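Look over both lines:
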Amino acid sequence: MIAFSAFRTGLVRAFHMPRIVLFAWLVNLAFGLILAVPMLQKLDGAIRGTVMEEPLLERMDENWVQTFKTDNETSEIVTMLDYSILGYAPFLRHSEVVMSGGIVRPLGMFLKGMITDFELQWTRMGFVSWLGLLYVVVGCILSAGFISAFRGEYPPTIAEFLSSGMISFGPFFRLAVVSLILNYLFFVGVVDWLNRGIPSWTENSPSETTPFILYMVRNAFVFLVLVFFTISADYAKVRIVAESRLSALAAFGSGVIFAVRRFWTTFSLAMLFALLTFAAMGLYGFFESAFPQNGYWSILLLVLLQQLFMAVRMFIRAATYAGELEVYSGTDR
C-alpha cells in the first residue's frame, strides 16, 4: 500500500536527519520560553525559593491556582493557566481550542477588519492570538526547510536548512493566510450555524441522547474538515517547493485537488502519523503519572520528559513532510 510505504520512508528519512530535527526542536524550545519565562517570574513571586527547601503537594492544588490567578488577573499568561495541566489534560485543552477555533477566530476577525474596514483592530488580538501568529511564522520557515531538505540527496547544514526556509517563506506565509481565511469562514459560516441549530432542532426531543449524538456528529465533522484542510495545505507546501510555485492560492487549489483525487492514500498516511502522535501522547501521560512531582529534582525530570516528547513530536512532523513528499513524487499529477 502506498500510504504504508510512504509512512516507512518518512520515518527513515527523518531518522537520517537528526541534526535538522534537533535544531527545529531547539527553535520550538526557544519559542516556548516566550510563555515559560514570564510564567516562572510570576510563580517566583508567589512561592519564591521554597520549592528548593520544602516538599510540594503530590498534585497541583485547585484552590491555590484559583487564588494565584485572581491575584494576577491582569496577566493574560497567568489567566491561561489551567490547574489540570498535568497528564493528558494539555492535549485535551489544545484539542478544545482547535476544535472551537479559539485561535483562528481572533486572527480572522483581525484580518477581516484590516481588509473590510481598512483598520488594524489590535484589541481583537489577545496574547494567545499573537503567539499563534508568531508560531505560524516560525512554522512556515521550518516546514519549508524540512521539505527542501528531504528533496535533496544529502542532509543539509543548518545554514542550508534556514536558507531554504527563508526562500520559500513568502509563498508559505501567503498559503497560511489562505488557510486562515478558509478556516475562519468554516467556523463562522458552518460551525456557528450548527451550534445555533442543534439546540433548536432538539428542543422538543424527549431525551438528551439526541442532542448528544448530534454534538458528537458535529465534532467528528469538524475534525474531518480540519484534517482535510491540513492535508491540502501540506501538499500545497510540497508543490510550492517541488515546482517553485509563487501563487499560494493556486498551490492550495492544487493541494485540494491532489488530496481529493488520492483521498485514501493521503488520508491514510495522515492517520498513520496521527496514530503515532497519539501513541507518543499516551506514553508521555503514562510516564508523567509515574513521577511523584513533590520536589525540585522530580519536577526537573518531568520537564526533561516533556521536552523529550516535544522532540519526538518534531521528529514525527518532519517524517510527515517526508512521507507526503514521497506520495507526491511517486504519483502522476
Remarks:
- The CA atoms of residues 280 and 309 lie 7 Å apart.
- DSSP finds 13 helices and no strands in the chain.
- The chain has one domain: 2-47+63-197+208-329.
